[in-house]
Amino acid sequence: MKIFITGASGFVGEAATRILSKNHTVKAMSRSEKTDLVIRNAGGEPIRSELNAVHPDFLKGIDVVIHSAAYVEQWGPFQDFWKVNVEGTAQLLEASRKAGVKRFIFIGTEAALFYGQPMIDIDESYPYPKNSPFPYSKTKAEAERLVLKANSPEMQTISIRPRLIWGPGDKTVLPVLLKMISEGNFSWIDQGKALTNTTHIQNLVHAIELALTKGNGGKAYFITDGEIFKFRNFLTSLLLTQKVTAPDRSVPGWLARFLARILEGVWKLFRIKNEPPLTRFSANIMSRDCTIKIDNAKKDLGYDPILTVRQGLSEMPVL
Questions:
Q1: Which of 71, 115, 126, 136 is catalytic?
Q2: Of 27, 119, 187, 232, which one has the greatest count of Cβ atoms within 10 A?
Q3: DSSP-derived secondary structure letter, 171
Q4: What is the pLDDT of residue 91?
Q5: Is the pLDDT assigned to residue 74 strictly greater than 90?
Q6: Residue 291 contacts residue 228 (beta carbons within 8 Å)
């Protein structure tokens, strides 16, 4: 099978390129010589292009597009999120359609449904919010809507929704935690008692591989490790793989959310470009329960986690 991947220099895209290239021909979007090297080392063929400018000729002969590229930030101008997440997805969908791509797999997120509320035992019937204050959530939701609406007999479209992706190669969760702790900026929110699912990168790529041929077009599928933890328990175990212990201090969730709102207001007022030390998105998502059902992925994709959280933790390399 011939596959085209976007975001191949990122955590998900690189892992998908590395694993899928063992059994498939993988081409991947690249914007620089540095990214070329990452893609080649992962077993893929770099194709010089970028979102919002993917020519259909680049996708000729491609069976499946895996769209993992996204603007994944907690802070920034809304138009930056919109241009990449929404406009970039729309243009890639159109190019894929013109090129005769048979299947389009979008890497979504449970955050597309998030506006600051707890989400407990949710499944794919859970509705999109009427509005979300978080640019990442709002634009990922709109992008997913475009993807699922584009489903047709000629090109089936599917969204895979992981929650809290972790594992070897992680560029966000663990590195950010380590940096915050080393700089003395880490505190738990509500003692880290909020409940969460997680998704190991190998389980996510396993789901993506299943979605190459399985799953109902026009549908979204949640993917997790199938286990529920308190944030504190999971993150403590993750940090212990690096022989690091987080400080015990904690702030109430209501206070963290209030402070984040004030900080963002100050940053906007004075047009400060760097990210505030606490954002509304991080304060909210770390203080709200989020537990997810994966029954539909099991039924339609034949998905089952291939790695337990305990196994994944035991295999974590030291950074």
A1: 136
A2: 27
A3: S
A4: 98
A5: no
A6: yes
Residue 299 makes CB contacts below 8 A (sequence gap 6+) with none
Both structure tokens of 168 = 């070897």
Which of 121, 76, 93, 74 has its CA nearest to residue 4?
Answer: 93
Residues near 211 by Cβ (< 8 Å), separated by ≥ 6?
A: 103, 105, 158, 160, 221, 301
Q: How far is CA 149 from CA 43, 85, 143, 219, in A?
A: 32, 16, 10, 9
Token couple for 296:
């539909």
Given the structure tokens 């063992």, which residue do they identify?
A: 22
Structure-token pair, residue 94: 């159109």
CA angle, residues 92, 213, 90, in degrees to nearest 5: 15
Q: What is the DSSP letter of 292?
A: E
* Residue 289: Cβ-neighbour burial (10 angstroms; 0-12, 13-18, 19+): middle
Q: Pairing between strand 188-189 and 250-251?
A: parallel
Residue 71 annotated as catalytic: no
Please report, to the nearest 10 degrees, the dihedral formed by the alpha carbons of residues 259, 263, 269, 271 taken in order.
-170
Q: Which helix (H) or strand (E) holds 189?
A: strand 188-189
DSSP 8-state code for residue 276: P
Residue appearing with tokens 């021909």: 25
Res 233 pLDDT > 90? yes
Q: Is 51 exposed, middle or buried (0-12, 13-18, 19+ CB in 10 A)?
A: buried
CB 59 within 8 A of CB 49: no
The reported pLDDT for the residue numbered 90 is 98
pLDDT digits (tens, 9 = 90+) for 276-290: 999 999 999 999 999
Q: Domain coordinates of the chain in residue numbers? A: 2-172+199-225+292-305
Question: Across-strand partners of 222?
Answer: 161
Pick the CATH number of 2-172+199-225+292-305 from 3.40.50.720, 3.10.450.590, 2.60.120.280, 3.30.70.100: 3.40.50.720
| 267 alpha-carbon distance from chain centroid | 26
